[in-house]
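Thread: Newbie trying to understand structure tokens

Hi all, I'm a second-year student working on a class project, and my supervisor (Dr. K.) asked me to get a predicted structure for one chain before our next meeting. I've only ever worked with sequences, so writing a 3D structure as a token string is new to me. If someone could post the tokens and maybe explain what I'm looking at, I'd be very grateful. Here's the chain:
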Amino acid sequence: MGPAGLLRPVPVTPLPRAVPAPVSKGAGRSPAGRPYDPGRALAGREVRGGSGEAVGAATGPRPVRRRWRLRWGRLAATAVAAYLLAGLVLQQVALWQARQELRALDRQLQELRGQQAELRAAEQRVDDPAYVDETARQRLGLVKPGETVIQLVDEPGAAGSPAAQSPGSPGAPAGR
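---
Reply by user tm_fold:
Sure, no problem. This is what the structure looks like when written as tokens:
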């Protein structure tokens, strides 16, 4: 073994080329936004080694169960939308009830303002000395000093008096 025997050519086996990761929006996702699946990326292609020779055909893609994820997302979005819609409907019902109550309170306020106006007018009448004098004469039978009062009294047998009506007549008071 001479110097020529030390340097003997050794066959080199090339390493398979690594598949470049796709450029994605998020880590582990494809450009379309789906989860990255290397088997799907190589589907239908031959994998070639470093020297260009075919190493073997890639296996077909394994089925990815993303349907359920999409359906759960839609279900969650529908549930949130239904919740928000129910909240909106309940707010509208509460608003309608508040408006009804406001209308009723406005009507009550108008009635009370009318009563207040009547009471203020009555207060002004009571402050008038002529009204006080008239009320004292009619209701209480009071007279001023020096006046003479003449009262007319019905006779006991007159047509309009209660004593003239027979005990069995319809207008007579029931006595017991």
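A couple of things are worth pointing out once you decode it. Residues 112 and 118 are 10 Å apart (CA to CA). The longest strand covers residues 54-57. Feel free to ask follow-ups in this thread.
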